[in-house]
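pinging the channel bc i need a second pair of eyes. not urgent but kinda urgent?? the chain im working w is below, pasted from the shared doc
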Amino acid sequence: MPVVAIIEDDPRIRAALAQALDERGHAVSSASSGMAGLKLVVDEAPEVVVLDLGLPDIDGLDLLRMLRAVSPVPVIVATARDDDQQIVATLDAGADDYVVKPYSADELEARIRAVLRRAGGDAVVGPVVVGDLVVDEGAHEVHLAGQSLDLSPKEFELLSYLAAHVGHVVTKRQLLGAIWHQPYGGADKTVDVHLSWLRRKLGETAAEPRYLHTIRGVGVKLVEPEG
């Protein structure tokens, strides 16, 4: 399920929304102000953003324009502002959808699915090829130098997620949310152990990485081996 970023200043709404989406299988990150939300989107690269317009530090419409300048992420504006001019201005500024409070979690979930379909989030993509490594999520297969790798379900999910973000650093928090559905933290050791098992099957170690490179204090990325 996609990672959803919530930018909402009301702590009760933010917590209720995060819990509802978490119960529906989403990984959730949240911010209570506009600039913190902007940093969240840049740092964690969520698949969709739910944005309130009434933020304490910056107008949500201005934040939307800033988001559009740095990311193509689908944005659903969820706000109490219901006049037609505001809706038109928000959509023109780059919002992908607009929902007026109060709304149900089921309605928001449906809108998330819809914007992801329009963004190609449900499209079947071809295999990802990185050096001699081929990750085919559609066929649920991984080959290294022509040989099939026997991966556990979680190892496959982990490698597939990294392959979908090849060349980009993915944080442990992102991995915990997307694969283990622990968006509010959790055992980093879980990620470390699975990365260790995956490295062993890829014929590398953390000390001598080929495909999986750890960026200390940030995360891990899948890259093509050098040489």
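so DSSP finds eight helices and eleven strands in the chain. and The longest strand covers residues 3-7. — does that match what u expected or am i reading it wrong
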